[in-house]
Structures are given as structure tokens and as C-alpha cells.
């Protein structure tokens, strides 16, 4: 069998519980905390329902975290769900997850968060753009690569710069995320305090629905579709919590610290989201928030802050969004290459991704591959199209991991579990049922995004059969070497 080159480095356990908690929170708090209140308001047209959607999305995410943390603690290693699925299901399902993470979930997340950074920069300093005739060019009637072209180019630049940052070491990237997160969380709580004290808002805003609001029963199919569309937007804001599992091999005492970081991190984020969105809806009537959705490069949080702090406040929140999305993009880029590295070691990804840089001890080639594909996704469409597509795909595998709690308790009943799923079996069952509902309703309500996601998942099948054949051939040939 071929030997690994002597110049190969190795992954090192350097991250403690607080670092893992920080990476969980910074993987989650990104663009959604500032932007998603607008599309949610446009779907539901009621401030009360918007807040309920944030709470429901947070509780469902927490159910998933409480369940999946048991699997993370039991099978902690670099690669996250890829490692879990090899043990729970089989090689093919593990590959399907890894390929979907590469083509849809993580790469689209990187593209989406970096895109909001570029939009915020554009609000401060307008970037050049192409003519309207170029902007309207479409590929296959779906993709609009030249629309908002200047913002997209800036997005790609950010991805490349931060990919290099992660290329040269995880500790530097983790330190950057930690510093940015402290500033961001402090600033968000400052906005909450100022908005609730000098924002000029009113509790009456919560009893005043949009002028277009029509009362519907919760069993009305149109209400269910609208509520799940709003949840899809909220889930984007909560997306990213599982990424900490990708760096399990670089966390100290991962069987204890990884599940703790996941549960504590998601709980903290939920509190932050409910408070900040309550503030938005307290300061502005819902119709004004809905109006901010109509402009391509307008962000709801900027509209709210400008209302009570003027242009100076708008500048402050724009800079804060730049910081937040900068830090979240950095953290989102950090974890997935460890997954691709784990896949490549198993012969189920591009061979070069199994290389660890001898100086920086990072999966350097996997980082480059991710940067290239994420950059291509930037030109594929709009922010909301990307996020809806990735949430649809992500919940297929979130549900599969939670189902794994039941399977592993059958397969490995005597294995030591540093953490056992709280509320078992009720909480895991609730999460699995919700995943099934979200997948079904997305297929019905947003078929384009769902079908694009499924097509990208299916695109991995030829690669799987090619890599699997080569792996089997190597196994057969190895005794003769």
C-alpha cells in the first residue's frame, strides 16, 4: 500500500471548551440576525407570528442539538457527520452527506454569508456594477451570474482572503473568530438596550398587523406554507451549529467538550435572536420592515437602526454587519475542509484533499477546493435562493443524525456516552418528524430550490462509483505489492 509522504503534517488537539463554544456561536451568528426578519415579515405579515416563528425555529434547532450532541459525544472525530454516518448507516450514505455538504450545505453557506458582507460594504461604499442588459442574462433560465456583479466579485475576494487565513492555521482562525464574536455580541446587546430605551418604538406594534394581513386558521394550507417558509428563513439564521463537529479531532477531550459546546452555543444564540428580533419589531411597524425586503441590497437591521439613530447609527450597524459576516464567514470556512480531508483519506473525495500542510498542520488542499467551489456558487443566484436550497438539504441529514441516536443505542448499548440526549425518546422524535415536514413542504412550496439541491446531491453519484471502484481495486491489489 502507498505510504503517506513524510512531509505530511497532522491535526492537533488545541481547542478547549470555551474555544469550541465560541466557534459554535460564531458559526451561527451571521447574516440571518440582521436580514431574515424582513422575508419572514413578508411571509407572515404579523409581528406576533414572526416572533413565534423565531421561537419555534430556536426550539426545534435545540431539539436537534440536544439529540445530535449524543452522537457527537459518542463518535467525536474530525469530519463530523461523515464519521457518524459511516458508523450509523454505511459508506454510501456517509459519502452522500459529505458530497452534499461540499456542493450545497457548507459551500452555499460560505457564499451566502460572504454575500451579505459584500452587500453591507456596498451600502457604505458603492461598488461598480454591470449594465442592466448584462444583469438580466440568465443561464438555464435559473441562474443570474451577472446580476449584482460588483457585490458578487467582492464576495469572492472575501472568500479567498479568509480561506488563506484558515490555510495558515486553525489557532489563528479560531482567535480571529473569538475576537470578532466578542465585539459582535456586545454590539448586538447594545442595539437591544438602545432600541428598547430610546428607539421610539411601541408595544402597539405587536398588535398591529400589516395592512395586507388576512387572518387564517393554523390548519389552513396557505398558512402552513407561509409559516414553514418563514421557518426556512429562521433556520438559516440558526444554521451552522453542527459545523463544530467537523473539528472534533482538534478539540481537547472532545467526547465531553463537543456536546457541551453544541448545546450551550445554540441555547445562547436562541436568546440573542429572540431579543434582537423583538427589538426590530418594537421599533418599527411591520409594514416598514416588509418594505425593506423589496430592495435588493437593503438590510432590515440597517433600516431599523437608521430610524432612531440616524445616519450615524446606520453607519454603526453597517460596520457591525461587516464584522459579523466577516467573522462568521471565517468560521464557516474553517470546519468543512476537515470533513473533505476525512473523506479523501477514505478514498471518497478528491485525493489531493487528504494532504495536511507540513508547516501549518491544516488540510490546505481541501481549503483551496472549498474556496473555488464556494466562489462559483456566489455567481449562481440570489442570497435567499442559496439559503433556502441549503436548509432543505441540511435538514435531510440533521434528521438522519437524530435517527442515529436510536440506531446507536441498539448497535452500541454498552458504549460510554458522555452525554445522553435530553428528553429521549420524545425530543429526538419531535425533531425527526419536523425534519420530514420541512422537507415535504419545501418540495411543495419552493420546488426550484429543493430540486436544485437534490440535483447537486445526485451529481455525486458518478464520483462515488468511480472512487469506490478505485478503492476496491486498491484493496484487491494491495497484497500483491
UniProtKB/TrEMBL annotation:
Membrane topology designation: Multi-pass membrane protein
Species whose genome carries this gene: Chryseosolibacter histidini
TM regions (residue ranges): 12-34, 49-71, 92-118, 149-168, 180-203, 223-248, 260-283, 314-341, 389-409, 421-444, 450-467
GO cellular component, one term: membrane
Pfam families xrefs: AA_permease_2
Tree of life domain: Bacteria
Protein name as it appears in the record: Amino acid permease
Signal peptide: none
Record-level Gene Ontology MF annotations: L-amino acid transmembrane transporter activity
Keywords tagged on the record: Membrane, Transmembrane, Transmembrane helix
Localization: Membrane
Amino acid at each position: 500500500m502507498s505510504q503517506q509522504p513524510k512531509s505530511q503534517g497532522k491535526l492537533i488537539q488545541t481547542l478547549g471548551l470555551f474555544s469550541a463554544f465560541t466557534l459554535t456561536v460564531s458559526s451561527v451568528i451571521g447574516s440571518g440576525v440582521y436580514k431574515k426578519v424582513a422575508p419572514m415579515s413578508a411571509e407572515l405579515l404579523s409581528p406576533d407570528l414572526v416572533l413565534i416563528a423565531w421561537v419555534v425555529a430556536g426550539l426545534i434547532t435545540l431539539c436537534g442539538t440536544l439529540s445530535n450532541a449524543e452522537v457527537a459525544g459518542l463518535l467525536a472525530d474530525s469530519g463530523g457527520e461523515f464519521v457518524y454516518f459511516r458508523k450509523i448507516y454505511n459508506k454510501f450514505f456517509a459519502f452522500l452527506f459529505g458530497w452534499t455538504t461540499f456542493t450545497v450545505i457548507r459551500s452555499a453557506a460560505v457564499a451566502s454569508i460572504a454575500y451579505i458582507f459584500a452587500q453591507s460594504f456596498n451600502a457604505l461604499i458603492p461598488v461598480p456594477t454591470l449594465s442592466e442588459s448584462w444583469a438580466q442574462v440568465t443561464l438555464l433560465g435559473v441562474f443570474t451570474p451577472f446580476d449584482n456583479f460588483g457585490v458578487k466579485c467582492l464576495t469572492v475576494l472575501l472568500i479567498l482572503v479568509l480561506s488563506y487565513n484558515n490555510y495558515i492555521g486553525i489557532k489563528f482562525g479560531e482567535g480571529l473568530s473569538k475576537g470578532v464574536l466578542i465585539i459582535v455580541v456586545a454590539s448586538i446587546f447594545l442595539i437591544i438596550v438602545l432600541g428598547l430605551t430610546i428607539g421610539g418604538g411601541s408595544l402597539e406594534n405587536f398588535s398591529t398587523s400589516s395592512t395586507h394581513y388576512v387572518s387564517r386558521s393554523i390548519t389552513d394550507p396557505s398558512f402552513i406554507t407561509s409559516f414553514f417558509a418563514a421557518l426556512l428563513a429562521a433556520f438559516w439564521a440558526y444554521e451552522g451549529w453542527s459545523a463544530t463537529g467537523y473539528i472534533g479531532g482538534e478539540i481537547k477531550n472532545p467526547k465531553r467538550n463537543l456536546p457541551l459546546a453544541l448545546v450551550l452555543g445554540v441555547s445562547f444564540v436562541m436568546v440573542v435572536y429572540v431579543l434582537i428580533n423583538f427589538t426590530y419589531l418594537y421599533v418599527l411597524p411591520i409594514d416598514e420592515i416588509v418594505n425593506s425586503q423589496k430592495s435588493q441590497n437593503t438590510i432590515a437591521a440597517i433600516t431599523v437602526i437608521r430610524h432612531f439613530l440616524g445616519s450615524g447609527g446606520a453607519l454603526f450597524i453597517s460596520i457591525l454587519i461587516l464584522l459579523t459576516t466577516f467573522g462568521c464567514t471565517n468560521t464557516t470556512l474553517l470546519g468543512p475542509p476537515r470533513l473533505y480531508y476525512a473523506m479523501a483519506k477514505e478514498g471518497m473525495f478528491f485525493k489531493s484533499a487528504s494532504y495536511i500542510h507540513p508547516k501549518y498542520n491544516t488540510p490546505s488542499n481541501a481549503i483551496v477546493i472549498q474556496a473555488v467551489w464556494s466562489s462559483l456558487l456566489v455567481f449562481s443566484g440570489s442570497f435567499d435562493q442559496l439559503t433556502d436550497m441549503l436548509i432543505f438539504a441540511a435538514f435531510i441529514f440533521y434528521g438522519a443524525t437524530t435517527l442515529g441516536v436510536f440506531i446507536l443505542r441498539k448497535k452500541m448499548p454498552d458504549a460510554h456516552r458522555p452525554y445522553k440526549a435530553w428528553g429521549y425518546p420524545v425530543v429526538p422524535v419531535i425533531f425527526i418528524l419536523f425534519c420530514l415536514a420541512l422537507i415535504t413542504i419545501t418540495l411543495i412550496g419552493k420546488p426550484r430550490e429543493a430540486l436544485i439541491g437534490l440535483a447537486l446531491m445526485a451529481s455525486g453519484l458518478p464520483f462515488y462509483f468511480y472512487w469506490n471502484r478505485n478503492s476496491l481495486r486498491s484493496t484487491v491489489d494491495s497484497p500483491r505489492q
